[in-house]
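Handout, section 4.2: multi-component inputs.
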Amino acid sequence: MQIQMTLNQKKITAEIEADTLLLDFVRDHGCLSVKRGCETANCGLCTVLLDGVPVLSCSTLAARATGHHVQTLEGLQAEAEEFVGFIADQGAEQCGFCNPGFVMNTIALLRENPTPTDDEIRAYLAGNLCRCSGYDGQLRGIRAYLDWKEAQAK
Amino acid sequence: MNKGYRYVGQPIRKKDAMQLLLGKPAFVDDITPKDALVVKVLRSKYAHAWIQEINTDIALKVPGVVAVYTYKDVPQKRFTQAGQTYPEPSPYDRLLLDQRVRFVGDAVAIVAAENEKAADKALKLIKVQYEVLEPVLDMHTAKDNPILVHPEDNWIANCPVGADNQRNLCASGSETHGDLEGVFATCDEIIEHSYRVQACQQAMMETFRTYTEIDRYGRLHVISSTQIVFHCRRIIANALDIPKSKVHVEKPRIGGGFGAKQTVVAEVYPAFVTWKTKRPAKMIYTREESQIAASPRHEMEVHVRLGASKEGIIRALDVYTLSNTGAYGEHGPTTVGLSGHKSIPLYTANMEAFRFGYDVVYTNKQAAGAYRGYGATQGIFAVESAVNELADKLGIDPTVIREKNMVREGMTMPAYYNETTNACALDRCLERCKEIFDWEHKFPVRHMPDGKIRTAGVALSMQGSAISNCDVGSATIKLGDEGFYNLLIGAADMGTGCDTTLSQIAAECLECSPDEIEVFGADSDASPYDSGSYASSTAYLTGKAVEKACIELKENMCRIGAQLLQCEPEELEFRGDGVYKLDGSGFASRMDIATKSMVCNTIPAQATVSHTSPVSPPPFMAGMIEIELDPETGGVQVLDCAAVVDCGTALNPALARVQTEGGIVQGIGMALFENVSYMPDGSIAENSFMQYKIPTRLDMGKLHVEFEESHEPTGPYGAKSIGEVVINISAPAIAHAIFRATGVWHRTLPITPEKILLAMPNA
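Output:
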């Protein structure tokens, strides 16, 4: 079947098998930041934005994205760059394999709620697993970014 | 502790941090061609069976299928997949594909196809007729069971580890120090129990994966997510029965390892396909495969007999470990050793006698392997729980009983190869931990208004730093154009940040910024030999190799500089930006030396040093965990965790802290919910992240991590290891807290709400 979508601001048309998952589709189209960590929609590594809303691309058919705008980390580099340095300062990226999904969901969080509490951050990102960091460094990084942003605004 | 270093001890960013955080291509599947053959493995449905007939004719007719291999097609020399120094202590008990299958998930056939759909279809069309055999599933009855997991004649144990395949024994042994029974006979108090730790999965986010191709010289080029490029080379060559020279292994970034990738789990299959077909091939393990056919922690049952005086002086420890290596013996003989050697020495101070005995048995369960902690985790859960039980029985504060008995600096540890603790801040760790945790207020049992119960538990931990008298760490440092440096290593940064910490060591020694050190590794053709990143060896051993290589390079730079300045090298001093004449009359910059090294030069502008150590200095840790337990549901919430670690010098405190936090949280998962249960047919129930629950960010409470530094004289700038010691305190501290809340000691992990509720005294 043929699908059309906007992938990171670029309109594309592609011929796909009906059962193609969005995860495999975007990787096939060069968006290698999107990772598969499980097959059961449990890890959050494959998070992409579908019309600005975070979805798990492992459990979304590529066909579902037809006519919609899909964004991966490749398309949100500038927005990510603003805060990921604060994660790097904590050393909380560790192996890095879960980073893109976590970063995508953090972008979604901060768009939705620019001043989240620690508990709101934990709750929003609860579906993003990380086996290396123990999560606390990621929280410290986001908190440091928010503090910096607040100071900038003053 | 400020030791006056410039770059060592700085919390600098990891060299690859921004690339990783921005999702740039870095991992095996990102950087290798998409059009490689898809390799998949048909897996046994039976825990124990003999393949009577296997028919691949129909599978081979599936469009896109390139090859299907069975046991008839593979070399018949047995090998081990354990990434260990040759001759490996792990028995040679595997074939790539065997006629006997030994666990649910064991490999039956290999399929290579042009695409995943064709491979999947072919898997379904391979016709196998099994003679189903009775399995050995209970580790307690495995030893001397008439059913043998490895009855074959060509099974080989390379080392004298007490293995006997005719008894289902992968290893066995015992050692005694002192008059054990004599001391026990005069002890006022004896604590005796068995403690069981399950076969937890490392659950690194990137599953096992490997790409293989034939390179321009006709050699097998392997790009794999591995901690052990050199061992991997040997193991692949053994599995394929080809010369070692024909194999070249490199690793890109690794999406987590935790020991899982110290075993060659996936590599052999695409390697075999590529060697046979001469075509590029790739294998990506599914999460299910990583749960059922990988290399998890060894299930161990540790029997502890602890003898003490009524004042709480620990006088004798008798530890017997029964370890289940599963269907194959990877890391079986070695993991078990740590269950005694890294638990008993914690209580060296007054120890008059100890015994440590063990059996490691084969069963028809998933083969175990190396997982962070490597047996120490299991032994420490047992011994630390027993010490907490003793403290409770004697009515002594469990931190006080540890103060009386724990190992301190300068003590010789008979249970740890008679090594002496040259650097040990465990006493300071415990003291500081009590302070930051507020032990006096959090240890007492507190009944909250909503009916929930708050209390806390404590545990100590130790590990090693590299395998003494065995592991080799190496580094090559070379000067390049404009005076930058390349650091070449064979150790594997698997997210731990060793590329960065090793560059900090080099920068400290070469008096330049870590940004001027470009790190490369690991590659079996290009890197200097290194055992690999395991056994908490990289910072301590490879780190020391880096320091020594830099010292040697500085000498060579002085020799080259002497030619430029027309003097003797002894008249020169290296000072970061170049070499200076001691009398102040001349200077040659690093760039000048680099340029000179490329023109009419015979002095190498590089140095390679290999390092090994006769000792394995233990890092230490004290940890305390506060929980809130709901007596109506049995649910446990971790509220607060404090940990103070002595890793010698923390080379990069930010990375050491995150390592510690990550280890604690993995330990929380092991303690509370990472269950591994087998169905009656021998299959694993928790075969996905849906069932196998690893901690989320809602499960770990608050973490407070600090360091009490010591100075290890044999380590680089005083450093010991950090990677493994940090996983050991969570389970015993949580079990302790659950006892405080409920009055019941849980000695089998994980301690689930069901277990807690059913064991409540009023249940």
